[in-house]
Specification:
The complex is a heterodimer of chains A (130) and B (379). Chain A is α/β, with parallel strands linked by helices. Chain A is built from six helices and five strands. In chain A, α2 packs parallel to α3. In chain B, 46% of the residues lie in helices and 23% in strands. The chains are: A alpha/beta (130), B alpha/beta (379). Bound molecules: adenosine-5'-triphosphate and magnesium ion (MG).
């Protein structure tokens, strides 16, 4: 296996978004796997532990699927970078603070990004995660 | 509407006889409030002067009802009304007075008093007046409650709408970002799928906006109805024909079972909307090599439209929610199907215009039948 290329798992129930992120990450030289539900993503994580990065959408079938999944992933792999994406942070007034606050302690989310995520933004974030 | 089904009454009068009398009459009194089967009981607190009443007003829960004497040793009932009670929308005041002049009545009513009791009054007069006041308060509280509920429904509607409008914009924005950064190279040909997706999402958004306009027009009664003699059978065949292509693409067989001609008095546009939505759902939520059957028949009160599919079906618990705005059943099978969730809510509103009924029969995983009956003259 080519160890130079990292693998990213993208989890989202929005087809357009999966397509876009897949293209962006491939351009950034990632191998990409996609999943559109918590179950699918959990199965992938369980059988293939050398995923190097996960992008999780906060709201899928249920309001808090993203949190549930992130929690499961953490149990499987403590150190994998998790990026949570959301389009609700702005319009509901929630602030997902990834620096301080209780969520980070509990979930250890490495970064929270508002949708739509732009290529340049993704590039910058991934560079800082390394 | 009343805490613990108890109406709290403050009696403010310097005559002990009035206070004790009212107390014993009202504590034995029960009122059945409108619409509510249950009865309301009364709890009385009494005050002999202005001062003790005012102090109590400031520290305790407001009473529901105040029986207020005009003349108190340390002040005047009218001043209390003006100063402390006229701002309180949720308290009803009955003025007790020995000087029931027209002038007084006008003055206190302007300040928000609800009724008068002229001294001396009989137990029946008291009960009558209290019953009236309680019903008034009940209706008022009910109206306030309804208004709050409507506001929150409206807020919810707008939030969902904002979300539904934002998601195609996000999608298109994301695709443009891919193009801007030439993620897939510098050949325009490489982007044809992306451009196609953008067009689809924009089309979906346009449909959402059109549906929304239909919905609000119907709801506000602004949509002009043009009820004329129309042929429901021909319109059905036209509607079906418009879906021929998409049915072929999904490898579906489509069938019409209708008389050659079935004339009714109805609005052509409305009928078309019903057909379109039922047929488009039957196609969208079907399976490969499935079938869509549309039937039209004359019944006693008008017509019956039936659209049957061999698709994914509906679970019992989801069936009731279908007709609410923006309801989309989310599961594995529906994930990749586009829609705004307004179709059936529009169908329901139109059906209501005909005092019609909608029946849904479905087997999860097997198929669904929508049956709509419209009341109209049919020929
Ligand atoms: N024939 C059907 N079989 C199975 N499910 C159906 C059927 N018709 C409707 N549904 C379910 O009911 C939901 C609401 O239908 P509705 O027509 O109101 O909205 P929609 O099809 O999602 O969007 P649109 O506003 O574009 O019609 C659908 O999302 C779907 O889950
Ligand atoms: Mg529909």
């Amino acid at each position: 296996m080519d160890k130079e290329r990292k693998t990213a798992l993208i989890v989202d129930d929005d087809e357009d978004y999966l397509f876009q992120m897949e293209a962006n990450l491939q351009r950034l030289d990632y191998e990409v796997t996609t999943a559109s539900s918590v179950q699918e993503a959990t199965a992938i994580m369980e059988e293939n532990r050398d995923v190097d990065l996960v992008l999780v959408d906060l709201m899928m079938d249920n309001m808090d699927d993203g949190f549930v999944l992130a929690h499961k992933i953490r149990r499987i792999n403590e150190n994998i970078p998790i990026i949570m994406t959301t389009s609700v942070a702005k319009d509901t007034g929630y602030e997902f603070d990834s620096v301080k606050g209780e969520n980070r302690e509990w979930l250890k989310i490495d970064k929270i990004l508002n949708k739509p995520v732009r290529f340049e933004q993704l590039k910058t974030v991934l560079a800082t995660l390394k | 509407m009343f805490k613990n089904r108890i109406c709290k009454i403050a009696v403010v009068d310097d005559e002990e006889g009035i206070r004790l009398g009212s107390k014993s009459i009202l504590e034995a009194f029960e009122v059945e409030v409108d619409e509510d089967e249950e009865t309301l009981n009364f709890q009385i607190v009494d005050f002999a002067d202005k001062n003790s009443f005012v102090i109590n007003l400031e520290k305790e829960d407001d009473p529901d009802l105040v029986l207020l004497d005009c003349k108190l040793p340390d002040g005047n009932g009218i001043d209390i009304l003006d100063e402390y009670l006229s701002e309180k929308d949720d308290v009803v005041v009955i003025i007790i007075t020995a000087y029931a002049t027209v002038e007084n009545a006008v003055k206190t009513t302007k300040m928000g008093a609800f009724d008068f009791l002229a001294k001396p009054f009989t137990p029946d007069q008291l009960r009558h007046s209290v019953r009236k006041a309680v019903n008034h308060l009940y209706l008022k509280r009910k109206a306030v409650q309804l208004e709050k509920k409507q506001k929150s429904i409206r807020f919810e509607f707008l939030s969902v709408l904002a979300h539904e409008l934002k998601s195609p914009i996000n999608a298109v924005e994301g695709y443009l970002d891919l193009m801007e950064n030439e993620i897939m190279g510098d050949q325009i040909g490489k982007y044809s799928k992306i451009i196609g997706n953008c067009t689809d999402r924009i089309g979906g958004m346009r449909k959402l906006i059109m549906d929304l306009l239909d919905l609000t027009r119907i709801e506000s009664g602004k949509k002009k109805r043009e009820v004329t003699r129309i042929d429901a059978a021909t319109i059905l065949r036209e509607a079906m024909a418009n879906f021929k292509l998409s049915a072929e693409q999904s490898k579906l067989e489509i069938q019409i079972k209708a008389p050659d001609k079935l004339e009714i008095d109805g609005d052509e546009g409305e009928l078309m909307i019903i057909y379109n939505n039922l047929i488009s759902n039957a196609i969208k939520y079907n399976r490969e090599n499935g079938r869509v059957t549309a039937k039209l028949s004359k019944i006693e009160q008008g017509i019956e439209i039936e659209v049957e599919d061999t698709g994914i079906g509906l679970k019992e618990e989801d069936r009731k929610r279908l007709f609410q705005e923006f309801t989309r059943i989310k599961n594995e099978k529906t994930r990749n199907i586009q829609g705004s969730g307004l179709g059936l809510s529009i169908v329901r509103k139109i059906t209501d215009l005909y005092q019609g009924t909608i029946e849904v029969n479905s087997k999860y995983g097997k198929g669904t039948v929508f049956k709509i009956r419209l009341n109209c003259s049919s020929y």
